[in-house]
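Forwarding these from the shared drive since the link keeps breaking.
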Amino acid sequence: MDFLLRKDSPFTGDEWNKIDQMVVNTARQTLTGRKFIHIFGPLGAGTQSIPVDEFGEVAPGDTSFFGDDDNTPLKVQGRRFTEIPMIYKDLVISWRDLENSKQYGLPLDLSSVAGAAAICAKREDLLIFWGNEVLGFAGLVNATKVKHLEKKNWLEGENPFQDVAVGIKTLQDQGFSGKLALAVSPDLYMQMQRIQPKTNLLEIDRVKELVGGNLYQTPVLGENKAVLVCPEPQNMDLVIGQDMITAYLGPEKLNHELRVLETALLRLKRKDAVIVFE
């Protein structure tokens, strides 16, 4: 990975290992979409584009003795080659901090690395849920043909449970099966932290049971919004070219500039595998 220019940096191999570990740990703590969406890759830093297929509505199969009845085949109805965008955040490590670490044998402060990694992780989730209007990408929330359902007041009764149950039935009626996942905004997550009368159960635990335990909160959804998906890889995946890593940009006024970066793209193959509650 010569493009990272690490050989040109003043950091030792051990310091780069600690930088990499900081990036990985921070990303794991921050990312939400990767917790339920299948990863396709990593394909390598040089991968610039990927085919994105789209399937239309799926007609039911047939049953007969001889198999000679006409039926609508399942096939790709649209294909385009899409460039995989880069997500990145630059940071600076002071030359004085680096020299102080070497001179006194102290651990190098990597707070700026953690901050840059957290920003990149949030940008990835924004790309997954909202896409990027400037680059022409849509996300789970705003893609065309995604089904939107009006939600009830989740502070009252069994409304969260009932809304999610309706969403699951909608997916099942369309033929979706397998893994389910529910991502909610932080306010809705807190609204489910209440005990249902006569059940001695938190509402959030009942909802979590409906989706097989795959319930997540993410601030990128804003407020009063939830997204239910069937995230099997035939429905959607997250393409990773270069996974999140740190490169050396070079010296600037004696200080050292680095860049945390990744290349990623959401492929939404079956848009009807997504239900948005709002």
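-- next protein --
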Amino acid sequence: MIKKFLKLFSNNVFIFTVISIFLGLIIGAIILLAAGFNPLEAYGVMLRGIFGKPKNLSYVIIRSTPLILTGLSVAFAFRTGLFNIGAEGQFIVGATTAVAVGYFVHLPMIIHIPFVILCAALAAGLYGGLSGFLKARFGVHEVISTIMLNWVALYLQNFLIYTPGFQKPGGEVSYTIQPTASITVLNQWKRTEEGVSWLIAHPFWRDLLKTPVNFGFLIAIGIVVLIWFILNKTTLGYRLRAVGFNMYAAEYGGINVKKNMIISMAISGGLAGLGGAVHVMGVSHNIALLAAMEGYGFDGIAVALIGNSTPVGCVFSGLLFGALKYGGPKMQPAMGAPSEIINIVIGVIVFFIAIPQLIRLILKFRKKDKDV
């Protein structure tokens, strides 16, 4: 009976993911109780922080957008048998490229926006492809190379911010991108006299447009559909997945494994770079001096794991992650509960997500013992 129960939940990914999220919240509630806080009240504050106002939901989607893309980046590498720890550095490269092309290049908006996106994806793709090349040519494990390249990207961005012509005078930030490179919705109109009057008469839209509403989420959804199509409906996707399943069998079948490793890491890097570009074009509009990693790329690893390394799964896990990251910290000013509880909840969810693999391993060994 126990064996059948374990087998059911280890094979049903959706059910186990839901249970993992539930267990994460339960353990978070236990920690809140131990700290002297009412978990129902704390989670109520978090839910109001997510769904209470139109602007809250808007911020959740805005925060989730780069997480969806970095999660998709890590998931794509997983699907092709690689572990991309460098999404953080690739995100930084994409963001830096977006600022450079968005500020220095002057084009009409209809050309400028796709051009910035393309340049950011290409730059980050080349940066990610470098790890693939190092593995294919010299056998350098992608985990090692991508971790090192994260720091290279961080300090390269800081170096550029202090470069004359790139640094905005009087601050440790870059120049702001041109309005033609921005994907923010109605950014100029809502500051005009006509816009202010209309928004006063429409409270819902006034509250919603207090946030940097942008087209980033739609771009992310479009990229998710494209990656799903590539992985499942194209020859390239078949080759990449074949290498991920078994590189030796793929090589025996005539697939160039080394070439596909480079392509996989390049596409993965490009996706993370898109996350950086969308964040710059829709939210920050510039980049600042970094003392440490921003975290979007590292959070993307958790997003990919919760989403079972599938494109559609990354959308929902990215939204969940964004909601927890935005709504969770609101517990602290409202009732004094530490916002770090949310990081514990996320960690527990990821921990339980990994358990099906452990259950499968246990069942496999038990079967071997019986056979012996």
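DSSP finds 18 helices and no strands in the chain. The chain has a mean pLDDT of 87.

- D.
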